[in-house]
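Hey, quick one: can you model this chain's 3D structure?
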Amino acid sequence: MAMNSIDPVTAFNAWLSSLTGTLTDARALFWWPTIATALLGIAIVMVAGNRHPPDMPRKPLGAFLRELPMDLSCYLGYTFTQVLLGGLLFWATVAGISLVFLVGGPPKGVASPSFSEQMAVAALAFALSDFCLYWSHRLFHWSRHLWWFHSLHHNPPALTPITAFRFWPPEAVVHFAAFNFGEGIALGIANLAFGTNMTPVTYLGVNVFWLTWYLAFSHLRHSHFALTYPRSLSHLLISPHMHQLHHSVDPRHHHSNFGTALALWDWMFGTLTIPERNERFKFGVKHA
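Sure thing. Here's the predicted structure for all 288 residues.
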């Protein structure tokens, strides 16, 4: 890939163009249907007669406003980093594919995959990219030096959907690369199993399983609205309430629920904690 594909000026112009589709582009972080489902989730929480209101700061508006400059700055940095490094992150996908071929041998010839096979590839890409995100997230908690970066994400006592993108650029790059590497492994496995013409099913340019997750109350993960899932489902999917436990000021909770979409990895590797339905948390980090 030509180096001019990551030219900062070109990337900056592409980034400005992408911001115009923040609400209308399905690939954008705040595509309007995801906001609509977040509002639906809030309505579900309220209609359900929640007797335990969100554990807000004493002056919530002031807390939100204090965090807003940092949240917005990180959001803009996150989106620009994503555009700037798009070409290089392609090679993380190539690395994942190459690793599979190194272990499993050369891929099969060109095939004409069925729709069900392509759906299977989309599901595999969703699962393995989430698996790699689980480990990149866990790494930033495990290492004291990397925690310095990641603590920025945990610092705010008031969470908003923009908090989801509150990362220093170097950390964001690691997570982007982990995501692409997982997708590459999935594509490599698919090519070995079905042939080199395999692609995941997408809708408006997004893997259909990731798109479903974006629509499934993803913005409430970083909020004070404790939307829960049935306990059996909580062993498979991370609910907003479960991710809120991860942001608890109690350090014991910082080593639970590392998954982005799937709770399966936390369940498999002993880091799953399912909070009680009425349990609420104060957010932030205790500093010595």
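One thing worth noting: Residues 63-269 form one domain.
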